Amino acid sequence: MIRVRACLLLALLTLTLPAMADIAIVVKAGSGVGQLTRSDAVNIFMGRYRKLPNGNPALPLDVVSLKARFYRALVNKNLAEINAYWARLVFSGEASPPQQVATATEMRQLVAHNPSAVGYLDSREVGDDLHVVLILNE
Amino acid sequence: MLASLAAQAFHASDDGRLTLSGFGTLGLVHSDNSEAEFLRDIGQPKGADEGWSARVDSLLGAQLGWRVDPRWDLVVQGISRYHDSGNYRPELSWAFVRYRPDPALQLRAGRLGWDVFQLADSRYVGYAYPWARPPVDQFGMLQLTHIDGADVTFKQPWGSDLVLLKLYAGRSDSRIHVVDDLVADFDADAVYGGHLDYEHGPWRLRTSYTEVRSDVDYAGSVVNEIDSLQIPGLDGEREIERALGFSRLRLFSLGALYDSGPLQVQAMWNRSRTARHHGRIDSALLSVGYRVGQVTPYVAHSRAMTSSTNPDVTDIDQRTWTFGTRFDVARDIALKVQLDRIDTRRPGFLWRGDSDWEGGWSSIFSLGLDFIF
User: Fold this and answer.
1) Which of A52, A71, A89, A91 to mutate to test the interface with B (most CBs of B within 10 A)?
2) What is the predicted ipTM?
3) pTM to 2 decimal places
């Protein structure tokens, strides 16, 4: 019985732990975007090609408090590398980095009101007004 | 830079926003070469003597951007560095208006960076790359810094890959120092070219072509000596152009960048053809860096060679081994330590000074502090 309980506990842990740490890329609910592939997400956040699958321009948002985790999960890079990457594109006049917002709350409000906005959140914090287009496992 | 953006409250349109950002390098170079001066590029009239010098790498740049609406914006960028005028007088590096009617299309007009091969138009932004400076064999021979004209960029997704085509045309002027006693002033009335990029996962592949047609004015004691011979029909400038053929340059380039997690690889090959004597300027670069935490050691090998059927022109042959480490010590600040071991088999315009120098090994030790704001 104890063993069964331990197995159950383990199963629960393995089910819930990754979900706790996952990052969800989100758009406004009902904006007509179903899913993004990982390369779509890289193109949008790294400024290579900012278009959503429904044809709308994509407006990426960075959440300062989650940024390090997000880029680690998306492209396995630290913030110094991300800054160096943007320094090259900004000072050659090729592209601009995502708009920065301070908190997840601010991000949620902005994404919920703009069908072009693409943000990211801890996957536990996604509300009804947002639609998850990609989950990044950490 | 990113901090200033973070401080901005985000508005749905973000229109009318003015941003100021910048970049800079404090660079110290130690050379053990007592016979020739080390240069970062052929525009610099003087280089680093034996001993320590802060001249070749130190620079400061600033950019002002004004976003009119999501489609239109204006960018102005200036830079102060030791350049062809022999001082740090600031110059306007970019000033353009950009129109992006769609994520797949971008048009720019005004003063633009010379995007002649990968990383060329960001070669002064030390914070953006691992090296103390872009390898001189490859980047030091570029003739132009900017063009006054226009470019258009098309992007097309291809499955999960991306194809990018950029075309540009304009005019430019610049000065290069061929040797101590010979300056070439380029009045390039036609600079045009383009490149095709293919982006696949961590790979960015580029093939590019550019043509530069110029009126080149040559000046210096070499020209004066020819003129002083006073042989009828012999004109110093014309003779130099006949020998060098800089009036028409064609540049071909292949490049591959691989950037995946902590691993960064740059590989490039470049060939310029001059107008006469089958003149060629070849360069190549291979660089590998691997990040461990905030520390990125790197090693690079680069090579520069020229060849010509003209017996009066001496060719260049040089190889460089570069070893260094970048330390990301604080937000938006990187320190670099680098050693270049340069094997100069035949010297030429990549060095200044004593024209009797026949080449040999040199060691260049560099310390750099790169920052952005």
Assistant:
1) A91
2) 0.90
3) 0.89
